[in-house]
Amino acid sequence: MNHGATARHAADSTPIIEGVERRRFGVAVWSSIIWIGLVSLAAVLAGVLPLYDPSDTRAGIPLSVPTSRNWLGTDELGRDLLSRTIYGARVSLVVGLSAVLLSTVVGGMLGLMAGFYRKRFESITLFFADVLLAFPSLLLAVSIVAFSNSRGVATVVMAIALLYLGPTVRIVRALTLSTANREFVTAAEALGATPRRIIFRELMPNVMPALLSMAMVAVAGAMIAEGGLAYLNLSVAPPSPTWGAMMAAGKAKVDRSLYPVLVPAGAMFLTVLAITLIGDYIQGHQQRGGGAI
Amino acid sequence: MFLLRIFRLVGILLAVSFATFSMVSLLPGDTVDSVLGANASQADRLQARHDLHLDQALPIRYGHWLADAVQGDLGRSYRTRQPVVEALGQRVGVTLELVLLSQFLALALAVPMAVLSAIRPGSWFDRLFNGAQLAMLATPGFLVALALFTVFSVKLGWFATAGFVPFSDSPFGNVKSLLLPSIALALEQVAMYSRVLRADLITTLDENYIWTARAKGLTNSQIVRRHALRPSSLGLVTLAGVTMGRMIGGTVLVEYIFALPGLGRFTIDAINNRDFIALQGAVVVLTVGFVVVNMFVDVLHRVLDPRIRIA
């Protein structure tokens, strides 16, 4: 089905422009995928790679520029920036992915149920979603981490997951509402399908594509949020290095060396950009193929 | 319908303030310890417990706090003894100025970009802007802030590395001290603004009355200025309103990086000083401001677009 629609679309529009667009996107998306792959691989294998210990203050001369000993230079305590950035990627990726996973699963479920059952369940769920949405975004995460007095990964994940819970519930509910009115759902109901079957077999597959592409963009946002929290010293506690905390520490010494700020900031920029590009590409494809579903 | 909205709004405000209030109470450790330090005398501790209403149950404490809060009393900071309302009042101006200046910059950049793109969709500058906007969307504001700070404040020394100049001292110095942080905040918005306006403009430019205008022989710039821009601005106005609301709590990082004495900075300082009364007041005020601005945008939207009013 999907294939036929795409082919027809390609035939409709001017072939030259279509080809150019595809190739241009191809390079950007491919480099994004490669970059994400590299960062993830480095983060997973950080313990095995021949890196300095991220807390080792004797890795090099403090605030050194990149050398053959320290490929990306060192920070104000003489710790290796490459090693710290790779270990920092662990925090960034783990927090970004698990926060969005948590909010997508919980918010998706609540949104589906709210859109299907309606009535009181819907109004209560929406009220709580609105309360969450009423907090200015970063302030909610800042307060949760500050108030909970703990700097564990779980706290930070929770704080950031809550940021995305409200929007997820609202969007999934809206998608569910528009799906629940369609003939195949009525048909399933008429055939005597249980609510559970309707939610998981009829509604969920139709909500999934939009939810997943939203989650993709949310991962980038969650990583930015983690960086912001870490910059304010409100993310995962030292000694685990985080990109945000590295930037905050580097900013104090930026008049003497750029690298302690530049390296983590560059890593974060490239990673977030890569995720955004992939998300943009997926969304574009979905809109084109959307009519065929 | 309108009354129902107000009713819901009050409900949300109550829930938000109660959530904030409970968070403070759920803190591990004794609040009195963090306020007075561990060496305070027993009498002082009891007095402090009483002052903070800590000897009462949570709902009662919330009741006391709410009764004071609606009368404009958010308590005194335990650190500085300054009333929280007064402290917030001194800082709200900085944040507001920052938000307004950054919105002005964002619109000044986004509108021309959108117009140029919409006149010739698919042209080389449309594609260039599209690429630039994607990069801007992916760049966190605080990274831009750090980059601007590093280049212009530290390396080039064109701007002070810290401090805020009040407008009354020197209007020029005031704008100068807020320029870099505003640019950092503005760049985050440009992409969204420009994309929304571009999409709306493209739709408008295909309307019959625009073709009539073309047939009359008006130039592109006349068509855009006189006929197309206004009916296309609705989405942008809404988005800008919502964004301004969101920025109330979103300037935290930028204020922190540029050491500006705004509301965000106040909140972070309260956290670092474990000044819970000040923190609670700040969070509630920011949240209430956010909710009220969003509500105002909603109303404005109805005023601007008659179709929504009827529905």
UniProtKB/TrEMBL annotation, chain A:
GO terms for biological process: transmembrane transport. This is Unannotated protein. The keyword Cell membrane applies. InterPro entries: BP-dependent_transpt_permease, MetI-like, MetI-like_sf. Keywords: Cell membrane, Membrane, Transmembrane, Transmembrane helix, Transport. PROSITE patterns: ABC_TM1 (PS50928). It is found in: Cell membrane. Residues 89-279 form the ABC transmembrane type-1 domain. GO terms for cellular component: plasma membrane. It comes from freshwater metagenome. Pfam families: BPD_transp_1 (PF00528). It is a multi-pass membrane protein. The chain crosses the membrane at residues 27-52, 91-117, 124-147, 153-172, 210-237, 257-278.
TrEMBL record, chain B:
One of its GO terms (biological process) is transmembrane transport. It is a multi-pass membrane protein. Residues 92-301 form the ABC transmembrane type-1 domain. Its main location: membrane. It is found in: Cell membrane. InterPro entries: BPD_transp_1_N, MetI-like, MetI-like_sf. One of its GO terms (cellular component) is plasma membrane. Keywords: Cell membrane, Membrane, Transmembrane, Transmembrane helix, Transport. SUPFAM superfamilies: MetI-like. The chain crosses the membrane at residues 7-27, 98-119, 131-158, 234-257, 277-300. PROSITE patterns: ABC_TM1. The keyword Transmembrane helix applies. The keyword Transmembrane applies. This is Unannotated protein. The lineage of its organism: unclassified sequences, metagenomes, ecological metagenomes.
